[in-house]
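Fold this: HlyD family efflux transporter periplasmic adaptor subunit
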Amino acid sequence: MDTEKRSGKVWKWLIIVFVIAMILLTLFSGTIQNVMLPKVVTASPSDEKLKAEINGDGRLQATEQTDMTNQNGLPMKKIRVNEGDNVEKGDILVEFDLSELNHQLLDEEAAIQEKELNGDKLKQDFLDATLGGDEIKIQDATRNLDSYKIEFGIEQRKLQALKNDIEKKRYLKAPYAGTITEIKASKDDIPSAGQAIATLVKKADGYQFTFSIPDDQAKWLEEKETVDVQVTEGKKSAKVKGNIESIVFGNSGGNSQGSGMSMAAPDASEKKDDSASPGAATYQVTVGVTEEPKNMALAAGMKASTQIIHVNDAKGYVISNDWMKQDQDGKYVLVVEKQLGAFGNDYTVKKAYVRIIASSADQALVSGLTKKDDIITESSEPLQDGDRVRVKS
């Protein structure tokens, strides 16, 4: 009897120990399994407005300026202007040395005189043939005289053309009223065709500057948009108004006079094509200065800068571009979905598709999310829709 009681107690304790062991194993197995899950860090989307701050700077250039050149490669006798001189249309800028052309002119004039002497002889031959009455001699004399008249006419036209050419090449004149901003040559230089002699800036045409920005910044800007421009010369500076004259795709190479940077820009679907990756394409922005500062005079070479700030008022949430991924259905982020499990909360990865309203190099304004969404920003290993994860606190 006692043996049976002891045996029953043993079995009873064995059952209790077994149940406890099973419970502990279940608990520990869940804990161990959770420890083995991928670890993630999450963040919530921001409900702040997406702000764009575009900065660009460059050097003022005349809206219209011309490099006055030695088109004919002639030696220069005298440069009649200096840097800073104001000139009117037709004013003489450079006088050229035409010694060689003048020698050609003398040769042509001598040839004409020789032709005239020969012509006098032919006229006398014609007169003698006419008085002699010999028809053959008359015909020969007539033919020779007619030939002379044709050749003499050609020589006269050649002489006049040379005179006109000399007069045309004697001076380099201003094509319009303006200011000489730079002298690029000396009269002692070895002459060469196309050599730049001076830079002439057209009067009252204004100034402009150019800077380059990536495409995600250019999308915020509109041509003819009014902007504030800061112009600086030494210790003097002034704020004036300007207009965006052009936004041109592509690098302008050597004509680029400045640089720009920005914090944000609208999405490609709302303006320019965005097939390239952010920052891959470049736009050249030209800003024209539309007013003269009160305390200083604008001049080519002055430093100019602009800061353009825009805010996108569209409804949505701001997230980092790094959080977004893309598949055949579009852009999406991975969010953590919390569910109550048998031994606590279970966290599961879920795709949340978004529509980009506006974007920058770093951030995007999107729809399709809520403020409570926990977006996965970091993970210990690659994740897929439906994976269980462990959220780092």
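The CA atoms of residues 130 and 138 lie 6 Å apart. The first helix runs from residue 2 to 36.
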